[in-house]
Amino acid sequence: MANKSYIKCPNCGVFNTDKEYCENCGELISYKKKQELRAQKVKEEELSDAIKDIENLNLPQRLKKHSNFFVRILGWILYSVWFVVSLIGAFLAWVIAMIAAG
Ligand SMILES: [Zn+2]
Predict the structure, then answer these.
(1) Cα(19) to centroid of ligand 1, in Å?
(2) What separation in Å is there between the alpha carbon of 43 and the centre of ligand 1?
(3) Which terms are listed as keywords in the entry (predicted)?
């Protein structure tokens, strides 16, 4: 008995011994298994989020290679805007550095 775990099924109330799934109704009752599944799900979500971020970063580049002419123009516009914003940001950083340097 010491090493065995008795888990009461939250779904049907049947007691199960060392089982991951309820013998009676098939409900997942192992806390360890639940944690494993949850950790796996979180990992998958983090991965898909990271992939989404990369795809968003490359959006203008991907649009520029699009088969549709108008989408390619939109890609160039987005790319130009991003480029100008980066230039302004760099310029502002330079100005602030100059002011700070006195
Ligand atoms: Zn059950």
Answers:
(1) 11
(2) 28
(3) Membrane, Transmembrane, Transmembrane helix
